Amino acid sequence: MSTSKKVVVIGGTGLVGSRAVTILRNAGHDVVVASSRNGINAFTGEGLEAALSGADAVIDVSNIVSYDEPVIRNFFATSTRNLTAAEKSASVRHHVVLSIVGTSDLSGNPYVSGKQAQEDAVQASGQDYTIVRATQFHEFMETLAEAYSADGAVNVPDIQFQPIAADDVAAALVSVALSKPHNGIVDLAGPDRAGFGELMRTYLAAKGDSRSVGVDAALGYFGAPVTATSLVPTGAFMQGQTALADWLRQQNHASQVEKA
Ligand SMILES: NC(=O)c1ccc[n+]([C@@H]2O[C@H](COP(=O)([O-])OP(=O)(O)OC[C@H]3O[C@@H](n4cnc5c(N)ncnc54)[C@H](OP(=O)(O)O)[C@@H]3O)[C@@H](O)[C@H]2O)c1
């Protein structure tokens, strides 16, 4: 009997989604790469019925770039309602969505408020689901460095940090999607926990960026007040393999090969 499954990746052209698509294809699964530019739109519902027909699982890694909280909340809640309704009609077994570690405690951050609206819509849907909450991606360090820079220095909140590689996030999502639904929340983080400042120093040093890095207990996370453990798992969690320093070495190596 074939163990090949049909899996729909909503946001399958994005950073995490494209990696999940590759892992699924390499394992012999039938994958639908869903994105609005591919005519499959979670927010409007366009193309969902055909895309989900015969699917075993949906992995939702769609994203919106906006700073407007009502827009973000509406995007994630409406998309989730559309997806889970279409999944129930098509008897899809499992809805997997990627959220952020600490979401429930970071509602002062407009983007995370949108992720909470997404989680709430999943939990209210009646569809079997798993919410995977990941920590910040290694690939997100550059955005963080820019967001926290001022006057030629980088100052970050005085909190714990445990970033993860997008490749490891994608692998975890695939493994969860092909397993039984948890009907609950699973945390996911990288292998190394350290101070945000220390990991930011590691990142900037590897990039040859000589700006000084400080920590400031008064800083929050994009509008949300934080405590020491706001961005890290506080209980059991799935663990990615790739430490930030190893990932940085791989990136530097890849860019040197490209230049050669
Ligand atoms: N960055 C982090 O550190 C971090 C940490 C934890 C969790 N996350 C979560 O990770 C998820 C994925 O992030 P990412 O960086 O991989 O995203 P990304 O690279 O920005 O990709 C977003 C994807 O969503 C698709 N999309 C947007 N609107 C859509 C719609 N209406 N219907 C269908 N597809 C749509 C995009 O394709 P089109 O434009 O063609 O539609 C694209 O494929 C996000 O939900 C984010 O909250 C991020």
Q: What does this protein look like?
A:
There is one protein chain. The protein is globular, with a radius of gyration of 19 Å. The mean pLDDT is 97. The protein has a single domain (6-259), classed as Rossmann fold (3-Layer(aba) Sandwich). The chain contains 8 helices and 12 strands. The longest helix has 21 residues, at 69-89. Helix 1 (15-26) packs across helix 6, helix 3 (69-89) runs parallel beside helix 4 and helix 7 runs parallel beside helix 8 (244-259). It has a 7-stranded parallel beta sheet, sandwiched between helices. Strands 6-7-11 form a 3-stranded mixed beta sheet. It has a two-stranded antiparallel ribbon with strand order 8-10. The protein starts with 5 loop residues before the first strand and ends with a helix. The chain is of the alpha/beta class. Residues 10-11, 13-17, 34-37, 40-43, 61-63, 79, 98, 100, 115, 134, 136-137, 140 line the site of NADP nicotinamide-adenine-dinucleotide phosphate.
Short description:
This protein is α/β, with parallel strands linked by helices and 260 residues long. Helix content is 38%, strand content 19%.
SSE layout and pairing:
Layout: E1 6-10, H1 15-26, E2 30-34, H2 48-52, E3 57-60, H3 69-89, E4 94-100, H4 110-124, E5 129-134, H5 141-147, E6 149-150, E7 153-157, E8 160-161, H6 166-177, E9 185-189, E10 194-195, H7 196-206, E11 213-216, E12 238-239, H8 244-259
Parallel strand pairs: 1-2, 1-3, 3-4, 4-5, 5-9, 7-11, 9-12
Antiparallel strand pairs: 6-7, 8-10
Helix pairs in contact: 1-6, 3-4, 7-8
Bound molecules: NADP nicotinamide-adenine-dinucleotide phosphate.
